[in-house]
């Protein structure tokens, strides 16, 4: 269709130029040529209303233009609607995060576990910014912890303030490696606990700095003699041995063991007090004799 239209236009202009190139014309010839030109004017196929083919082409062009316009408007409306929804969703997420994050109280006995738990809660709430995590940790601190990290709170570092706060708290409250091993070897006793609970605490103290065989040996030493003899013939994992010990040791025996430990401790304290009283009572006599 376009090819035929260009051909018709070119032919019309060619005929017009051939007629006008014959030389100067007078007024009558001009009128005659104008009448012929009016009868044989060059028409554009797209705008010739007398032809059915040309009118259908016009309708097609207009339909295409309207379709493009509708598609453009639809795309713009979709972009605007998507932006508004995403913006509202982000604001709702921020509000939910602020409400749903519940900060637990600071645990001085094991701050690493507490801070790890708090980190997981912040991740679930969608909070990943350092300064936001920094403020959440501060809200869980008591007066004693605030005194330790007071300089960081008043002048937080420009980069990674949460990491600096975490490092300070862990360095102050986490026991040294020697202290943990000393507690593990000398101070931890069964008492009124189940053997499985004792094993969990021993494993927490040991961390990755002790082999499984050494931990097993220290754990069995905390158990009564008859339980050690029963478990010595088993090759099960340490956790399985602890469960077996839970079933072997009666609850009454654990209470009796706790009472025995308390009596022994009170006896030691009483003997030390008696020694101190003797030493203080002898002091004035020595000075008087001199």
Automatic annotation (TrEMBL):
Residues 103-185 form the DUF7041 domain. It holds the Pfam family DUF7041. PANTHER family: ENDONUCLEASE, RNA-DIRECTED DNA POLYMERASE. This is Retrovirus-related Pol polyprotein from transposon 297. It comes from Nephila pilipes (Giant wood spider). The gene is pol_3429.
